[in-house]
What we know:
The complex is a heterodimer. Chain A is an all-alpha fold.
Amino acid sequence: MGICSHLDDEACAARAQRGDRAAFSELVARFQDRIYRFVARLTRSPDDAQELTQETFLHAYQALARWTPDARLSTWLFRIARNLAFDWLRRGKRVGFVPLDEDTAASHPDPAPAPDAVLETAQRYGLLEKALARLPEEHREILLLREIEEMSYEDIAAVLALNVGTVKSRITRARAGLLDKMPR
Amino acid sequence: MTCPRDTDLSAYVDHMMKPPERARFNGHLQACPICQQRLDDMTALGTSLRALPSPQLGFDLAAQWNDRLHTQPLGRRPARAGAGWRGWMPVGLAGLTTGLALVSGLWLGGLMLGGLMLGGAAASVSGGALVRVFDPIPPGGLCAAAEICRLPKGMP
């Protein structure tokens, strides 16, 4: 049981700001998987995503004094992660690209005959991952935040430093783009 | 009502429409199979994305963070790409180790050369001692034969 497991994220962050290191560890535990999956899908490089996830928390720890409770901690962390991931993408660090769960059924063939439904699901996931990977980064990130992280338009606007109207129109374009890339 | 734009469909999926607008939109959907199909596609897309297997970090970063916080202060970036949390190198410690190795090397060298490399004064004082370092009998050692150990005149 964490030292502030009974507290919400912002209260826990406030304790961390007062120097409670265990409180910050608790926040890392809460967000590490969410930040990782977001960065991994954004960069499409699982190894670099691991490092970027660590850097996200390091940056957050170093900047903790500047965090104010009027910003939700989750949006603040995602914003740090997103900025680090985009810096990485801009630097063109695409060497050693590893497709993320690409065509799971083909890359890990099961010697036993798979039930049709399982195979079909794996293929559908594979196609969706491929289509998602082919989206422009700006569309991919906004869909990840909306559909997978289930953030509100306001939170997405805070993470991406956009206004809500732009978020609304960009989500629409991202959805349309992904639907176009999915096989009929 | 003419068919709504994609923006409105997307907002409908996200429950971002105001109630009167949503009610009007519902009425249109009842009568328009094209919009209904587009809406179904968007809804299914969201469902599929949420159902995707989630990539896993693969290790407990919080536990590593906790260990690190209790052993040393934070503030360094990873030493190299791919090194990860375990690859973080405390630069101060590395510098201190290198410095100590350098100083001990100089000290040992100075000991061997009797300080010749370090300055003229030291060299003049320890000139005799330098010879004795290479004597057949080390200082304080027992002499096997008197003729070997007899000191020449003028030696200290």
